[in-house]
Design goal:
This protein is of the alpha+beta class and 445 residues long. Helices cover 36% and strands 27% of the residues. It has a 5-stranded antiparallel beta sheet. A 5-stranded antiparallel beta sheet has the order 10-9-8-11-12. Strands 13-14-15-17-16 form a 5-stranded mixed barrel. The chain is elongated. The chain starts with a strand and ends with a helix. The relative contact order is 0.04.
Length: 445
């Protein structure tokens, strides 16, 4: 709309008269409120100019009024019109969704009962809780498990089993639709998903089994899965156990040992420190020691020579053949008598079943003293015959010692009887206090 406003400002002496005339176009009408605001602004500008001397300020007032009118007209032109909604848009805005009619006829419970049951149910899933779940499907790097939470849980492949072979995938460890226990190992992520584990449940169960075996102190078998400088690593019910090289009988901890199954016994079980130590020697010795006794003849292989004797391997056990038990004659150089790898026959003269130690002797098998130095082959060929004579001699010596001990005991008994009888005779024949009583009577009289 066009608006022409004329402001005439005149100053006559001490007074000022403001005359404002407004012409409205007949083509378009302006709202009364906008026209009044425009007139008020123009009047204020004219009144302010009236206090300034001279007519030079009258054009400035006209310019300010025209600028205000132009800005108002521009704002009216720029302001967009609200789009007119179609009938479909109006219906769409008024649509409130499908109306569900609740009908609980023929049911044992109502919708209110169901809402109350849902509110009363505890859906809290905390870390380390053990819950029952079902494997739904395989996923990248694991599988999806339904545990009844608001979102399905995820089982990583690394947490699928305690015992995993190299190259095993999730399909080799877990079956779809399998129902089992899972342990929660994380908090909910931004999607409400939890991480679960099977390996940690199996880990606790394995320690319970190991502690029970240790209490029984029995012999069990385990497979070697690795070796190092100190010994070997065995897998006991899924747990890694250390086998020291000093407790490995008959062989060294080399790569050839990997994959072998060995009989073992526990040396140390410490769940808090996660420490598991086993012994192969203790298991072998206990198994074979039960069949060994003093005086038995055994065959072994010389494994090592020391200044004090030779170590002989006997059925996986290591026995000591002391240098004083090799021959009745003096031995100056042990290497001239025995060599590593030599097969020898020995007699067991002592054994320690607890520590698995065996004391051996060859001099008890010598037909003649010094035969081990002169003809060891003859000694080994006649070992059983010589051992039989040795046992007979030992038995005769044992009986002789028992007879001697019996004679000593009988002799001591006779001596005690003589002492007892002599003391009885002395007590019957005389009274040692008789003289003392006579002297007292004489003194009193």
């Amino acid at each position: 709309p066009s608006l022409r406003a004329h402001i005439r400002l005149c100053g006559q002496g001490q007074c000022c008269t403001n005359v404002i005339s407004i012409d409205f176009s007949v083509k378009r009408k302006m709202r009364l409120s906008q026209a009044l605001a425009l007139v008020t602004a123009a009047a204020a500008s004219g009144a302010a100019a009236a206090f300034t001397v001279g007519p030079a300020f009258v054009p400035a007032a006209n310019t300010a009024l025209k600028s205000a009118v132009a800005e108002t007209v521009g704002e009216e032109a720029v302001k967009p019109k609200a789009p007119q909604l179609s009938r479909f848009d109006r219906l769409k805005a008024a649509y409130k969704g499908p109306q569900i009619v609740k009908n609980d006829e023929g049911l044992d419970f109502s919708y209110d009962d169901f809402d109350s049951a849902v509110e009363a149910t505890d859906y809290a899933f905390n870390r380390n809780d053990v819950v029952k779940g079902t494997v739904v499907q395989y996923d990248n790097g694991g599988c999806i498990v339904d545990i009844g939470a608001k979102a399905s849980a995820f089982l990583p492949t690394a947490e699928a089993s305690l015992i995993m072979n190299q190259g095993d995938d999730i399909e080799d460890l877990i079956n779809v639709d399998e129902e089992r226990n899972f342990q929660i190992i994380s908090e909910e992520d931004e999607n409400g998903q939890l991480l679960v584990s099977v390996r940690r449940i199996q880990y606790r169960e394995a320690w319970d089994t190991v502690i029970a075996k240790n209490a029984e102190d029995g012999v069990f078998e385990a497979t070697v899965v690795g070796v190092n400088r100190g010994g070997a690593i065995c897998l006991v019910d899924g747990l890694r156990a250390f086998l020291p090289g000093s407790h490995l009988t008959g062989q060294l901890p080399t790569e050839d040992l990997i994959g072998q199954t060995l009989p073992l016994k526990f040396l140390e079980v410490n769940q808090e420190a996660n420490k598991l130590v086993v012994s192969n020697r203790r298991a072998v010795v206990e198994e074979q020691m039960s069949d060994l006794s003093r005086g038995d003849i055994i065959t072994g292989i010389v494994k090592a020579l020391k200044p004090y004797g030779a170590f002989v391997e006997v059925g996986g056990m290591s026995g000591l053949l002391h240098i004083s038990q090799i021959s009745y004659d003096r031995i100056d150089d042990l290497e001239k008598v025995l060599q590593p790898g030599t097969q020898v026959k020995c007699m067991i003269i002592d054994h320690d079943k607890v520590n698995g130690r065996i004391a051996l002797s060859t001099k008890t098998l010598e037909p003649e003293p010094g035969d081990m130095l002169r003809d060891p082959k003859r000694v080994f060929e006649m070992a059983e015959e010589t051992a039989a004579r040795y046992h007979e001699r030992m038995e005769a010596e044992r009986k002789a010692r028992e007879e001697a001990a019996k004679d000593i005991v009988l002799g001591l008994g006779d001596s005690l009887d003589d002492l007892t009888s002599s003391s009885d005779d002395d007590s019957e024949g005389s009274d040692p206090l008789a003289d003392v009583s006579d002297n007292l009577d004489s003194l009193l009289s």
